[in-house]
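Sequence, please.
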């Protein structure tokens, strides 16, 4: 077996889909090209591109939503701050699994974490004149930079690959000392690298956020999915690591998309530190002609203008899933552990055929297995590897599109199925033979 798709066909489809540069293509571009190639040839792709859940949506949430609809709640506008049941459940959930106290009033439902970050970027960069930039600890979620392009907000970034542990302090302070950083953004576990920040690193970030008055936007989209540790036992250590132990300047973003496979319902939480929630900013008061208090301004003057609140019935669905998790009825960690098994099997196929894991270590231990991992191949840039994999019927995205300076691609495990492992193995053996 050699290439599944010839180069001319892939190039032709890329032109048809108006993808100018396949090596630096976005997730959406890759989706279009891979889907069109499947449509034209009937040959299935190994889809490692989009991070869409690959497990069934949680039934408890579905039934709770149905019950809310049957009660007639679909006819009512939800409160801008969210329904009380969800806010109370969110506060309980955060305490149970992170061991952080955040009052219900400071837990805001949003239409996915994408909406949470969009609104938070606005609030954070407008609260203090002169603090108008965002610092990304990359690699990261490309959509967040696209949001800043829409908003006209500038940013700075660095690849954490060479700055783990104590080396992170000097690297970050080099950016923060200019005094123009309003927010610091990262995901933990990381999209795309699946690295996890350790306690000493979170402490550094928290201390610097306080020192330089920057708000940390901590994306916990893959909550409790560092399967190396026994997270997810309500009110029992170990608790999920978070910057919230080390600063009062934080917004935690918790999404139902992955932990409950509830992506289609677009529901997440922006959980704001109580101290930040209550802090008054004259610049916000002047701009929005309101109190200028961060929390109420964030909710009523910013988020409501973007989404007009979250779907009411979906809020009840998430509230039920959160409460059942705290009560122990739902074990969402075991539900999502399938991603760990898939990653281990997929990684072995690739590494047996000459590939390397690009981000392979945290500070003190090898990187875990989960929703994402990263791949490199000797002598190839990330863009070149992306294109070569496309010829063998495997879709991914280049690490260069995520703010990474390393050469490789991101692989997602969510769409892998049992019948695809032999196909992946056959194709990667052919890839390796063709690229010795």
């Amino acid at each position: 077996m050699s290439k599944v798709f010839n180069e001319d066909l892939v190039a032709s489809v890329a032109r048809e889909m108006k993808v100018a540069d396949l090596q630096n293509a976005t997730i959406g571009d890759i989706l279009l090209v891979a889907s069109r190639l499947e449509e034209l040839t009937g040959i299935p792709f190994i889809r490692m591109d989009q991070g869409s859940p690959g497990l069934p949506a949680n039934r408890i949430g579905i039934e709770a939503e149905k019950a809310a609809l049957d009660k007639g709640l679909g006819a009512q506008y939800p409160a801008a701050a969210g329904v009380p049941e969800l806010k109370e459940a969110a506060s309980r959930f955060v305490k149970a699994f992170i061991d952080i106290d955040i009052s219900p009033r400071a837990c805001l439902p949003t239409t996915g974490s994408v909406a949470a970050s969009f609104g938070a970027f606005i609030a954070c960069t407008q609260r203090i004149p002169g603090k108008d930039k965002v610092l990304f600890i990359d690699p990261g979620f490309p959509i967040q930079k696209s949001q800043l392009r829409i908003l006209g907000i500038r940013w700075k970034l660095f690849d954490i690959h060479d700055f783990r542990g104590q080396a992170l302090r000097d690297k970050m302070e080099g950016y923060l000392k200019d005094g123009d950083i309003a927010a610091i953004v990262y995901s933990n576990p990381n999209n795309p690298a699946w690295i996890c920040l350790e306690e000493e690193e979170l402490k550094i970030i928290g201390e610097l956020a306080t020192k330089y008055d920057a708000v940390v936007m901590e994306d916990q989209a893959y909550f409790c999915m560092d399967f190396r540790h026994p997270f997810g036992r309500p009110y029992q250590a170990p608790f999920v690591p978070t910057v919230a132990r080390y600063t009062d300047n934080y917004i935690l973003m918790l999404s139902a998309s992955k932990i409950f496979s509830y992506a289609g319902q677009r529901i997440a939480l922006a959980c704001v530190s109580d101290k930040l929630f209550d802090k008054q900013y004259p610049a916000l008061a002047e701009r929005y002609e309101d109190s200028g208090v961060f929390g109420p301004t964030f909710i009523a003057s910013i988020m409501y203008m973007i989404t007009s609140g979250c779907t009411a019935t979906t809020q009840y669905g998430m509230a039920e899933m959160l409460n059942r998790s705290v009560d122990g009825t739902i074990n969402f960690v075991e539900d999502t552990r399938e991603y760990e098994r898939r990653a281990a099997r997929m990684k072995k196929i690739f590494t047996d055929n000459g590939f390397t894991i690009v981000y392979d270590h945290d500070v003190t231990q090898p990187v875990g297995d989960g929703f994402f991992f990263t791949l490199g191949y000797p002598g190839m840039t990330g863009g070149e590897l992306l294109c070569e994999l496309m010829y063998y019927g495997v879709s991914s995205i280049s690490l260069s599109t995520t703010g990474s300076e390393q050469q490789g691609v991101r692989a997602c495990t969510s769409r892998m199925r049992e019948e695809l492992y032999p196909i992946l193995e056959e194709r990667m053996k052919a890839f390796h033979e063709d690229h010795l």
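The chain has two domains: 7-55+335-434, 59-327.
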